[in-house]
């Protein structure tokens, strides 16, 4: 149970599979945020990940903020904000440009 909000802890997400402990899950979250910080600016979005908020914080260039729970929600929100499809496997993101 979260001591701040009183809700039960969120179950793990598939992107956290293989993490042996909370430290490895947190390190994985920061690693994913680092990748997102390189990908999302081309869609006019910024991402921020902290240890004190459960979720990925997205912000637009106009200052609008949203918190999403999981990585798959990032792509849905990016598409909604930009009004265009976002392909996380675009060649320019995986180094094949």
Description:
The protein is an alpha+beta fold and 97 residues long. The protein has a domain at 21-81. Helices cover 31% and strands 13% of the residues. It is built from two helices and three strands, in the order H-E-E-E-H. The protein has helices spanning 22-39, 71-82, and strands at residues 45-48, 56-60, 65-68. It has a three-stranded antiparallel sheet. Strand 2 (56-60) and strand 3 form a beta hairpin. The protein is globular and about 35 Å long. It starts with 21 loop residues before the first helix and ends in a 15-residue tail after the last helix. The mean pLDDT is 76.
Q: Which structural class fits the helix and strand makeup?
A: alpha+beta
- C-alpha Rg, in Å? 14 Å
Uncertain runs with pLDDT below 50, 5 residues or more? none
Number of helices: 2
- The chain-level mean pLDDT equals 76
| N→C terminal distance | 45 Å
- How many strands? 3
Beta-strand content bin: 5-15%
Tell me the overall shape. globular
What percent of residues adopt helix (DSSP H or I)? 25-40%
Widest sheet, order of strands: 1-2-3
- Spell the H/E element sequence: HEEEH
- Main beta-sheet strand count, sense and barrel state: 3 strands, antiparallel
């Amino acid at each position: 149970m979260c001591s701040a909000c009183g809700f039960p802890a969120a179950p793990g997400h598939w992107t956290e599979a293989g993490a042996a402990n909370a430290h490895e899950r947190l390190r994985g979250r920061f690693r994913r945020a680092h990748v997102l910080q390189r990908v999302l600016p081309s869609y006019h979005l910024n991402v921020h990940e902290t240890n004190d908020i459960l979720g990925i914080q997205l912000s637009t260039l106009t200052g609008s903020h949203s918190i999403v729970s999981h990585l798959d929600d990032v792509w849905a929100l990016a598409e909604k904000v930009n009004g265009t499809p976002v392909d996380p496997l675009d060649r320019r993101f995986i180094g094949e440009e």
